[in-house]
Amino acid sequence: MAPWLLALVSVFLIGLVSLAGVVTLSLGHARLERVLFLLVSFAVGAMLGGALLHLLPAAYERLGSGPRTGGLALAGVLGFFVLEKFLHWRHQHGMPAEIVGEAERAGHSHTPEAGAPFATLNLAGSVAHNLIDGAIVASAYLASVQAGLVTTLAVLLHEIPQEIGNFGVLVYGGHTPRRALLFNFLAGLAGLVGAGVALLLGQRIEGFADALLPLTAGAFLYVAGSDLIPELNRRHSYPATKAIGQLVMMALGVGVMLIPFLIEGH
Question: Which residues of the chain have a pLDDT value below 50?
Fold first, then answer.
């Protein structure tokens, strides 16, 4: 299968994760929190493993061992910091109790007016986020199929808890569950636009896909280190059994990223 087709299929599958928010309608807050902290821990391991075991080594192989490769990785870290600050991205990797409560009581008279500013801002940030995710996945496929699959898996695992949170924010902002699900899905499909732009640029600009490898690695390191791990430490560190569960799930996430090496016999 052609890399461009694999990229579009992968980005579409990631977009389908936006429908995961519907689980908030059937799960209580306590059960949802238990599931989310495990998903987030697994995503941390997958993102760190993808960045350090696959993307950065591939970047050094293609771009050389000079400062350019490390500089691009740093640019990925700093770039995502700037985007998160100025686009007000809301990486909702868990759902606050009040949001879960509103999702469970959809249609309750105390919900804010539909289209509340924070819900609109969250949706705009989600569109921007998915545009860049789509470009990252497509560019990874242009570099190699293995890099594309690794990037797809890492993004996919990261998206599940985030999309659940985005859905909750929209419902809390006054949208009906059905409308929130539709808006979240449309925002998820924005990744196809980002993928299409990246595929076009990759065919016209020499070295475009190679440069995206360390940038993607930097983005993964930023998201895992700045957003996900602090969230786990803040809300899910105690009791000790939770910390052990986090470590186990992180190890499993890293283990998934080792599978391609085992298949290749490395």
Answer: 89-115
